[in-house]
Amino acid sequence: PTDLYSVVIKVLYSINNQLINLIKNNYCFTCLLLQDIIVIDNHTFIYINPKYLSKINCDNMIKINYPFPKQAFLSPEISSLTYIPFFTSYKSIYYSLGSMLIHILFQSQDNINDINPINPINPINPINPTYNMKSENDIINILSPIQFTKLYWCIIRLMKNRYDKRLLLFL
Asked: Which of 8, 35, 49, 66 has a CA that sits 20 to 30 A from residue 15's CA?
């Protein structure tokens, strides 16, 4: 595992804890953007954009009332929406999280000069997430450098194309 691998583990742990607490209180994020994550003491990562916070209804669905920026990490169901308002499962955020984790691990390694040394997950240049709308087999191929690690299995569970199959579990 590389230094970026360790960063991704910290991001996963921090965002997971944040999501657990939000979901317990019937809230969830609708998407993730790297620029909306702050780093505290190089160990804790917090997503801070309240614009993308949505109430979870009694059917475990969230309501999408707005378009998303191009840099957002989105689930397939949100990426392909053609009208608003739109309802989808709160588990949509799991795909977004997996997509962001893949981006940090692999996109960043391709151009290490684009990474801000003060905040390793805040690129200097704007990004266009490349892992949205990939097939599950594509995701397996992308993750081959970390195959069979705990992080690999976690991301595989996050990146299921069907939201009812997604699970946020890091063992």
From this structure: 66
- The enclosing H or E element of 10 equals helix 3-24
Angle between helices 3-24 and 150-158 (to 10 degrees): 50
What is 100-132 written as a DSSP string? Answer: HHHIIIIIHHHTGGGB-SSSTTSBSS----S-T
Measured distance CA(78)–CA(97) in Å, rounded: 14
- Quote the pLDDT of residue 13: 97
Looking up tokens 């390793």 gives 120
Q: What letters, b where the CB count within 10 A reaches 16 and e where it falls short, cover 54-68?
A: bebeeeebbebeeeb
Q: Among all chains, which residue has been given the structure tokens 């397996």?
A: 140
Q: Helix 92-102 to helix 3-24 angle, to the nearest 10 degrees?
A: 170
CB 146 within 8 A of CB 5: yes
